[in-house]
């Protein structure tokens, strides 16, 4: 009855705002960011592969479609900076040029670790300060402790929720339906 008292113009605005604030959690979001074309990717992904993602967090991270699905899930929770930091650290460890090492370390620190960083990850003060000191004389292992903390956080917190999420369950259903 109260809805009838709201002017039509306000109802339309409320509906639009409701749609904007609604966070989606379906496999459609996952397909939008797949590494290759969504339909082709889903055809390539077997139920066994997707099921193996539940075996361990590292199995999920090592599979390109698993990584894409987990990233899509983290976006629905507004916490994709954790995965982006972890990936940046993995890329950093592959750096061979000493000149690039320092600039990459500084960029990662400023983007993810520094207080008030644009995509600040949730790590404790001691880890943040140790990382700050490590970046002063960067080595391939200067982010190891911070990366480990973020990995552990994702594994204990986000990963179990991902396995229960609509993104993952829809994806499994989609691969199983293909077999029928």
Give the helices and strands, then pairings.
Blueprint: H1 2-5, H2 8-21, H3 27-32, H4 38-44, H5 47-52, H6 57-62, H7 64-76, H8 80-92, H9 98-113, H10 125-136, H11 144-164, H12 166-179
Keywords:
disordered N terminus; signal transduction inhibitor; 180 residues; 12 helices; cell projection; Regulator of G-protein Signalling 4, domain 2; mainly alpha; RGS_sf; 0% strand; cell membrane; RGS_subdom1/3
Tell me briefly what this model is.
The protein is built from 12 helices and no strands.
Detailed description of the structure:
The chain is mostly helical and 180 residues long. The chain has a single domain, classed as Regulator of G-protein Signalling 4, domain 2. It is 73% helix and 0% strand. The protein has twelve helices and no strands. Helix 8 runs antiparallel to helix 9. The chain is elongated and about 55 Å long.
**Structural class by sheet pairing and helices:** mainly alpha
Helix count from the secondary structure assignment? 12
CATH architectural label = Orthogonal Bundle
CATH superfamily: Regulator of G-protein Signalling 4, domain 2
Note poorly predicted spans: 1-29
Order of helices and strands: HHHHHHHHHHHH
Number of strands: 0
Q: Structurally, how many domains make up the residues?
A: 1
Biggest sheet record: none
Q: In percent, how much strand structure appears in the residues?
A: under 5%
Mean pLDDT: 83
Radius of gyration: 20 Å
CATH topology: Regulator of G-protein Signalling 4, domain 2
Shape: elongated
**For the record, what CATH class applies?**
Mainly Alpha
User: Distance between the terminal alpha carbons, to the nearest Å?
Assistant: 47 Å
Question: Fraction of residues in helices?
Answer: over 70%
């Amino acid at each position: 009855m109260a809805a009838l008292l709201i002017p039509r113009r306000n109802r339309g605005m409320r509906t639009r705002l409701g749609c904007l604030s609604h966070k989606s959690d379906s496999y459609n979001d996952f397909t939008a960011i797949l590494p290759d074309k969504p339909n082709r990717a889903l055809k390539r992904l077997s139920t066994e592969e997707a099921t193996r993602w539940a075996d361990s967090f590292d199995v999920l991270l090592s599979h390109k479609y698993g990584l894409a699905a987990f990233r899509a899930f983290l976006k629905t929770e507004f916490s994709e900076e954790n995965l982006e930091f972890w990936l940046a650290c993995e890329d950093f460890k592959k750096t061979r040029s000493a000149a690039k090492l320092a600039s990459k370390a500084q960029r990662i620190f400023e983007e993810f670790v520094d207080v008030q960083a644009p995509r600040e990850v949730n790590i404790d003060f001691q880890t943040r300060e140790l990382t700050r000191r490590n970046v002063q004389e960067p080595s391939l292992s200067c982010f190891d402790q911070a990366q480990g903390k973020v990995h552990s956080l994702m594994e204990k917190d986000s990963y179990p929720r991902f396995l229960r999420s609509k993104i993952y369950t829809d994806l499994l259903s989609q691969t199983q339906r293909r077999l029928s």
